[in-house]
Input
Amino acid sequence: MVTIQSVDILKASDNSIELGGDFSRDSWDAHRYSDDHILLGKFAEHSMTAVGWCDTAVLKSILHGLVERSFSGSVFLKIDSSQKSLIFHNGQLVFARSDVMDDRLGEVIYRSGLITLEQMTDAAVEVTRDRKFGKVLLESKLFTSADLWNALKKQVLEIFQSIFLNSHVHYSIKERTGIPSISVVFESSTSSLIEESASFGQMFRSFLNRIDEHSKISVSGDVGSTEIPKEGTFYGDIVAMVGTSLSMGEYLSLSKLSPTNSYLAIFQLVIMRFLDVEDEKIVNDRLTHESKFERREIKSLIDAYHITLDASRKAFEAMNFEYPLSEIQLFLKEKYDSRKTPLFLKKDGTIAGESVKHLYAKCRNSKSQYKLAVWELQSLIQFVLQITGDLLPGQGWSIKKSIQEMLE
Output
């Protein structure tokens, strides 16, 4: 069992620290993992092992440290009653495992809409100790090898992202050498995956802090041109379950997912603009603590987007042209993955209140995520300016220039 214990530092020199209490009985090596954290570990035959309990901010620093150290081995995590493990090779995440049923390959593929519930159930029946789920998909021609490769990457990524959904975790780190028997390769670096996953976890926990069992879930009135998921699909069945309105407590009692994944499914549907959730604890889309520079800049960019949108829309209306709002929605849908960005719009093109809250939560997580949020908003503004110049005949580019001058 892992216990939490304070550490007394009796003496420190250039290359050693003398610890007091129970820690004084053994020799420890320390590794710097951030400006604020070090990891104490015992070493046997040059192989590191370390255990502890920490919040996800510290976990993020530890994982970044493993990347910098070109670590090869496993990170075992206990989150509530679940057990998960991350496999690293030369500082890069190459695989992940979980004992949670919702993290199984079939469940991940079904939630992604790549197979139906019936196909998942039929394939699961054919699974044996020697015939894995992926092999069943290949032999039944439901998946190609490329499809299966991408599905494995998605499974690993979702397990990795899930470790940041809770506020605290127990961890155990064991160093190993050699190449893992199973591995996947991501297009993004592990450092980027850590930042994106931690940011998503921050947004999710912020969402949980604003709701309770009495919060009302309803189908969004701002779906716009986005098609509601069909019944028989993972998200379609949840939307159908919600119906016209359902309390969060009622939804949790009906859901067959784990509590965390039940909340996560609703959170995802809110991001995708299929559902709305009434905030019981905080009903406030406005920025707080505006003295902070980062938050002031995010707010100014949100305001700049709305000014740009309003001016662009009026220019289209003056020339009796339909406003290309669907182009803006498509731009966001194609450009961003729902687990990387909280930026989404209402039916009228304005940034949704829930999205504003997620943006602020994202910026609280780290400087890099703040810079990414700034870039996302600037990119959206520039796209609206671009379609104004491209789609309005004759005066389009002069109108674009006048809007730019107004923003300066």
Summary: The chain has three domains: 53-186, 211-277, 293-407. Residues 282-291 have pLDDT under 50 and may be disordered. Residues 211-277 form one domain. Residues 293-318 form the longest helix (26 residues).
